[in-house]
Design brief:
It is a single chain. By secondary structure, the chain is of the alpha/beta class. The protein has one domain: NADP-dependent oxidoreductase domain (TIM Barrel, Alpha-Beta Barrel), CATH 3.20.20. Helices cover 44% and strands 13% of the residues. The longest helix is centred in the N-terminal third of the chain and has 14 residues.
Amino acid sequence: MSLDIPIIGFGTWQATGRRGYEAILKALSVGYRHIDTATMYGNESEVGRALRDSGVPRDEVFITTKLPPSRAGHERETLEASLRALGVDSVDLWLIHWPPRDSVATWRAFIELRDLGLARAIGVSNYSTRQLDQLIDATGETPALNQIEWGPSLYDDKRQAEHRERGIVLEGYSPFKTTNLRNATLVEIAKAHEATPAQVVLRWHIQHDVVVIPKSVTPERIAANLDVFGFTLSDEEMTALNGL
């Protein structure tokens, strides 16, 4: 993986207000060191406050935020507003949340702001391989990461290989939303490892080298979603999950 990013992050979509702040604080307290937010989520200030109150040093937490396509053309002021809300000098990763009308112009602005030190790395979200190539061909600059909806039911070996060939980290969101956690195969594999089906789904991502950002505001689930390094899925189990 060319980008130095923790393989499990804490997703914060819909985690707003007091409940969102407490969930993010809980995530940091149980050991998450990668927090994923976005301008569109309206919770960057909650992330910033939780980070400050957690006592975890800033340089130990990988922070991602995203530019909504509606803010294309206003990249700098949007990123500066994010930095103020988060209470940080730079983000570790800044993504184009969805492809805007002129992706290349937005990507050029991203490169410029990264070079100014406002973001350590830049990437995209919800881009097809063709759209990734459009950015690379136009600027010579490859996105560090592409964040897309991913899970066993969406497994696409070809698409993953396309990212690998280009040196782009694949990051999956909504791992549970796209998975039937009551699927018999999944339940059986979970039982064999004394794990939950959700933990097996996350472990499947890890063994495929796919960064994953589960989200929850339930303290027990927040902790359980990070507790996936104590077991390993066999090749047969991985193949069975690939087939979901």
